[in-house]
Amino acid sequence: EDKVVQSPLSLVVHEGDTVTLNCSYEVTNFRSLLWYKQEKKAPTFLFMLTSSGIEKKSGRLSSILDKKELFSILNITATQTGDSAVYLCAVALLPGANSKLTFGKGITLSVRP
Amino acid sequence: NAGVTQTPKFRVLKTGQSMTLLCAQDMNHEYMYWYRQDPGMGLRLIHYSVGEGTTAKGEVPDGYNVSRLKKQNFLLGLESAAPSQTSVYFCASRDRLAGGASSSTDTQYFGPGTRLTVL
Prior knowledge:
By secondary structure, chain A is mostly beta strands.
């Protein structure tokens, strides 16, 4: 059975801290890994990763994939209260025609002023 | 360009009642999905469609039916609602794959959600 596990399940930090969110997966026929941010409404897309070792970056957020060890991390530097959200990790499998996503349970991040 | 929209935003049903949730997308996407999200459970796929006139079961399809009569719309039906179907329902859409895994088309775009309570 395909599995996506995120850790920790919840995290409380103070503004300015750096956080690392983890996502590990056990799936057959890996195609890509995606990160979403969800703030009480629709999940919004952050990154899609397909190759090991290539960092994707957007402002204070960055993410990297390790296909050998089967995990990804999402880093947020200099956190702000607006970063408070649930962060979802999902894996897309081959064959890609249906490309269903298997989601982890999410990590709830709370950033305190 | 509205993206993915869902109606209604909120609904309260009594056990045994039926209802239909509507998802519409204006991005000309081939694939559409219905998920439910429950506390501590993440997003779970109910049904999906890979094109107009086609539907398929996801992870938790029992108690739900779907139809995709038009490419831009994906309907989720509850024939006889049960309290276990109390949840937030999200619709998503995705474009057809255009190339290899390096393309961005695994990305699904989500609607704002429908909060359904079944009493």
